[in-house]
Structures are given as C-alpha cells and as structure tokens.
Amino acid sequence: MKNFKFLSIRHIFRLAVVMLLLAVMSITPALALDPPEITSSAVILIETNTDQELYSVNADEKMYPASLTKIMTVMLAVEAIEEGKVTLYDSVTASDKCKFDLTDDGSSSNITAGETMSLQDLLYCAMLASANESCNIIAEYIGGSVENFVAMMNEKAAELGCRETHFVNTHGLPHSNHYTTARDLSIITRAASEYPLFMEICSSAGYTVPATNVSEVRKLSNSNALVTTDSMYSDDYYYSDARGVKTGFTSAAGYCLASTASRNGMDLLVVVLGGTASGEAGNTRYSNFGDSIRLYEWAFTNYSYQDILRTTDMVTEVPVALGSGRDSLVLRPGSTINALLPNDTDMSSFQQDIMIFSEENGEKLTAPIDAGEVLGEITIHRDGVIYGTAPLIASAAVELSRMEYMKGQVAAALSSLPARIIMGLLLAIVVIYIVLVVRYRILYRKHRQRQEARRAAGVSAPERKKTTVHAGASSKRMDDIIPPMPDSAQPSEERDYFEEFFGQKK
C-alpha cells in the first residue's frame, strides 16, 4: 500500500509562486500594447496604408482646430493648381479685405493691402509662418471672396466624409461655430497629404519669400518642431521620421498638431488637439509635440506588417481525376496576405475559408493541369474582419493519363441513355440466344432418346418402293443410286422434332 504525504505550507507557497510567475509570463506580450501616457485633450493615430486606427482619445469630440484650419485652405488651393485653374507662379495682389476678421495678436507675415507676391509665396506663408492674412488672400483669389471660399471648405469637408466639422473662416481664429474633431482632421490631413505639392510645402524647414513691391525679403521658419530644429517652440522635438503637416495654437484651442511619420513600411498620421504647455520659461514642454512622438514610438515599436499567408504555404490537397502517376494535388497561395498587426499576435487565431472552383461548379478536378494554374481562392479572416483574399494555384503540373482518359471516355459513353438502350437490347438478344440453345439441346436429347427407344422396340422405317431406272442396256435399282435416309432423319420424324422445338406439337 502506497504512502501519501500531504504538501507542507512551504511547498504550497512555492507552487503558488511558480504558478503566479507563469501567469505573469503568459500575459507579458499583451502589456507591450499598453498605450503611452497622453496629456492632450484629444488624439488619434491612424496607419494610412490600411486606414487602421491604432489609438485614439476623445477623437469624436468637437473642438477648436486653431491653425489646423489652414490645412483645408491650402489643400483647396493645391487642388485648383492641379486642375489647371491657377498656377503656382500667378501674381496675386492683396485686397483691402486681406485683414478681414483678424486680430492684432494673430500669427502673420505682415502682408499688407496692395502687396503683390506669387501664389507659391502665399502658400508658404500660410503653412510655415501660419500667416492668417495670407489665407484670406488665397481665399479671395481662388474662390472670388472669402465667404465663397469658406463655403467651398465646408463642401469639401462634407465630400470627404467629415461629420462634425464646420468652418466660418480660412485661418482658424476662434468662433463658436468653427469646430471639428480629431477624427475629421485626420481625414482632411490624409486627403491633403495625397498631394506631393502640399507635402513639399509643409515639410520644408524654411522658405525665403522674395522682396515684393512693399516688403524686403522674408525669411520663414516652419513652426512644426518635428521637422526642423529651428522651430519657434523648441529644438528638442525634432523627429527624423516625421514629415509635415501643421501646428496650431489659440487660447481656446490649446496647442494642436497634425503630422505624419514613416518607418519600416508603416505610414502613420497623428492629430493632437487641446495640447498644453508646462514648465518654466526657457524649458517649456509642449504636449502636442511630446504626445505625437510618444504615439509614433509606441506604434513603431509594437506594430509591424506581418505575413498571415505566404506563397510557400501548402494550403490544401485536392483529388485529381485522370492524372498520370498521381491522383491528388497540393494547392498553395498565388500571393501573400500581409497585415499590420501587434507584434505579439497569435497567428493561429486567423481562420481560412477555402473555395475550389471545380467543387463549386459540381465538377471533378481533371487533368491535365498546369503548374501555377488558378484552381480556387482562400480568404483570411478573424473576429469578423477580412484581412485578404489570395488565389490558390497548382503547386505542380499533372499530366493526363491516356489510359485513364480512355476508360473515362468509355465509361461516359456507356453511361448515356442510347448506349444503355443498345446494351439492353444486346443483352436481351444474348439471353434469348442462350435460352434457345439450351432448349434446342434439351429437345434434341429427348428426340434421340425416343429414337433409341424405337430401335430397341424393333420398329423400323417403312420400306421404300423400289423403282427400276433404265439407262441404255442396263438397269439398276433406285436404292443402288440414292442410299436410303437414316432412320433419325426421316421426313416425318424430322418434322415432328422441329414442331416440338418451336412449340407447335403437343
């Protein structure tokens, strides 16, 4: 009998510690995706290649956009250039309305009424120096009036699918009816970033505006500290992976920033609204820049493009009819399915839907088959999200077996209705023939038995009448010329046999 010992308190404690450590180790990968600490009021992080939202806080809350409004203003001007309505080098003269609805403490390039400069110079003033009057001048030149241009801004926002956006001016100074959301601004920024000219302007560290009829040369520096070390804010936020787009600030809106960054095939877009400034003078920290960098690093560290399905994967094996030397074939993907995923994603959690074209049509997959021939498709999905579809192709060629082909042709021919009717008739004829032969032999045997019985009883065939045939001088009996018929072949008996065979004699 075995002796059982109870575990001591010490053993139980050690076991509990080990189990706790194993549990912690099992959840460690998930902790890597804990979001960074964000202090701004609203943020959104988008991967633009996939339209995948990686992180957001208050992304749909209405807020003041400040100078991020200028993204829409400059985008409409770039669109007009792309459509050939205006050119970069058009000379534009500021009207008396260039300072309409502006405040004295707003950002400016000090452009005055009557001053003439190129449209290109005005665009750089709007994006790099965030000049409010430049936006009004652009609006009048493109839209005919500031009011009409603002209507164009709202129309474009609706066209892009913005749901909580309304503009009342071209520059972003506070107004109770001038608002947007971080999500809507991400949509506007992404649309603007599709234009190379727009990205060229907003990514420039600086720009020189030539002397005009009113002003000397102007030296502009980009206010976006992510793309230059010469920003008015600080040189601590330079981020080598960043490009563009625009900063913004008012007391009502706080510190705002829309920007993009790219690394390892990932294209990210971040919008920050309602940022704060903290710290002592000379060492002020701006959350719009700090939060953007933290979001970028979090995404680049924890996400990557991963192959869910590779072209080398052997997906399924299907039967093949009439193949020479093989009766099945392995199918593999014709293209890779790649997705942006957390680095600790369990790849076994994805599901596969496989469709073989021949099976869908109710047919057999039949040789010959070429290597690389598309025979079906595979769809990868998880939790209701489809990550991609790829064709399924033959991993090898399958030659046609002539013998199997001939067998198949014969089988197909014999399976047709006319063939079945003919075969049935032939079979019936054979059966009838066999029955007749068997019946013939049985009756013949009975007939022979009767003949033998007659001979045994002493009954002979009736004598024939003897006839003399004269031939010249000599004569012979007919029996000498024609021998008598055998007893078994006498006409009356032969007639009796056939009548019996055909069922006429009873």
Uncertain ranges: 1-7, 20-32, 463-479
Q: What is the average of the pLDDT values?
A: 86
Strand content: 15-25%
Shape estimate: rod-shaped
Strand order of the largest sheet: 2-1-9-8-7
Please give the number of β-strands.
20
**Helix coverage percent of residues?**
25-40%
Count of helical stretches: 13
Gyration radius, to the nearest Å? 50 Å
**Sheet bearing the most strands, described?**
5 strands, antiparallel
Secondary structural class? alpha+beta
CA-to-CA gap between the ends?
A: 97 Å
Q: What labels would you give this structure?
A:
alpha+beta; 20 strands; 506 residues; five-stranded antiparallel β-sheet; 23% strand
Q: TL;DR?
A:
The chain is α+β, with helices and mostly antiparallel strands.
Structural overview:
This protein is an alpha+beta fold and 506 residues long. The chain is built from 13 helices and 20 strands. It has helices at residues 9-31, 69-82, 119-127, 132-143, 146-160, 182-193, 196-202, 287-302, 357-360, 402-414, 417-456, 478-481, 491-501, and strands at 42-47, 52-57, 91-93, 116-118, 206-209, 218-221, 242-250, 254-263, 266-275, 277-278, 285-286, 303-309, 316-319, 328-333, 337-342, 351-356, 374-382, 385-394, 468-471, 474-477. The strands form 7 sheets. A 5-stranded antiparallel β-sheet has the order 2-1-9-8-7, with helices on both faces. The model is unreliable at 1-7, 20-32 and 463-479 (pLDDT under 50).
